[in-house]
Amino acid sequence: MEYDTLILGAGAAGLMCAAHAGGRCLVLDHAKAAGEKIRISGGGRCNFTNMYAEPGNFLSANPHFVKSALARYTQWDFLDLVGRHGIAWHEKTLGQLFCDGSARQIVAMLLDEAAKADATVWLQAEIIEVARTESGFRVVTQNNGRRKTVTAANLVVATGGKSIPKMGATGLAYDIATQFGLSLTDTRPGLVPLTFPPERFSGLAGLALPVRTSGGGGAFDEAMLFTHRGLSGPAILQVSSYWREGDEITVNLLPGADAFQTLRDLRTQAGRKNLSTMLAQVLPARLAEHLSTEWALTGNLADQSDKALRVLADRIHGWTLTPAGSEGYRTAEVTLGGIDTDALSSATMEAKTVPGLYFIGEAVDVTGWLGGFNFQWAWSSGWAAGQAIQTRLRR
Ligand SMILES: Cc1cc2nc3c(=O)[nH]c(=O)nc-3n(C[C@H](O)[C@H](O)[C@H](O)COP(=O)(O)OP(=O)(O)OC[C@H]3O[C@@H](n4cnc5c(N)ncnc54)[C@H](O)[C@@H]3O)c2cc1C
User: Fold this and answer.
1) d(CA 160, ligand 1 centre) in Å
2) What is the pTM of this model?
3) 362 lines ligand 1 (CB under 6 A)
4) What is the DSSP letter of 279?
5) How far apart are alpha carbons 276 and 73 in whole angstroms?
6) For residue 375, which atom of ligand 1 is closest to its CA?
7) 40, 110, 246, 268: most buried by Cβ count inside 10 Å?
8) DSSP one-letter string for 129-154
9) Centroid of ligand 1 to alpha carbon of 10 (angstroms)
10) What is the mean predicted confidence (pLDDT) over 16-20?
């Protein structure tokens, strides 16, 4: 069976590419349904893009790589598509755009666009073999219990990263890249809760507060959540992408306030109060109690010198923590690292050394922040490859 383009992966990037590649296009995916990660994303409402998406929101060994694709297919282009499909949406916070109804609307929209472009989608199609031929590529697949061989001039790898293996994530993209001599950057889980010894925060489980987290060059003002296993919430997920095993993270527990001045004012107003009671005036009571023990706070506020208050204020603004680890690919929203961007054209996503071979989406060493950026990368990179293929087919 001959096609112009084979796309491996009917996820966000693969379906976007299928909607734009033109010609005879076949999408293969081993899952039972297309776009499963879209379906479960954003708590079922899909945070499909971000109003403020720009290159600075992405991690990659080459921070310039994203620029071309993001500039040519922007968040406004995707929003326009969403609008044309009559999907109602809203901004939740920080420019994050969600469906009013269901993430399934985004999956349906992409499948509709792919169908309009005459693309065919085969689900439950295991990829058995990928090989180069004289005129392009050959893929052997096991589909509906039958082994089939399909060929095409173009092969697009859109099988994503390793996060959430339970949902069908595999390292196929990395295997194919290696097979064709493309280099990889180290992969690790991103946007993932950080773990601590069980006794450390279990007493605080369920407590959330606004903080500023920082570490590894990233800093984020969002909510942090204590859990039985450690720390989670957007502020932690964001900083986890910058965190490396063994490193510290810093949590500013009173962002936007001057803890030293606040403590001095409290000393004037209520000097007889003990330190832990006072701490509960500026932080949630359970956390104040926990920190009073951890920092061995004793005595009244009135007994504290400016120097002692300064030390305490610095601790509040810079609580340093060394996570034991992360929850790993089991719960990570994304995979950091992947196909080395040096091996790809930033305009087309085509492999520089293998004409007709493209890598898009999460498989590539491009990872967005939390907040709709990862889907925007899937749309932009999928569109870039689709356009390039369409142009190639017209030649
Ligand atoms: C719980 C969760 C919530 C998320 N929420 C958001 C959000 O709200 N906003 C946001 O921007 N990002 C979110 N993300 C991240 C986002 O889902 C991904 O960045 C995005 O889906 C990547 O698109 P992709 O097309 O590259 O890969 P995917 O969407 O993962 O698609 C890859 C496809 O390839 C198929 N595949 C994999 N291996 C094989 C194989 N060996 N053979 C055949 N097929 C294969 C898979 O079945 C899948 O359909 C979330 C992720 C998770 C896990």
Assistant:
1) 6
2) 0.97
3) yes
4) H
5) 53
6) 11
7) 110
8) EEEE-SSSEEEEEEETTEEEEEEEEE
9) 9
10) 98
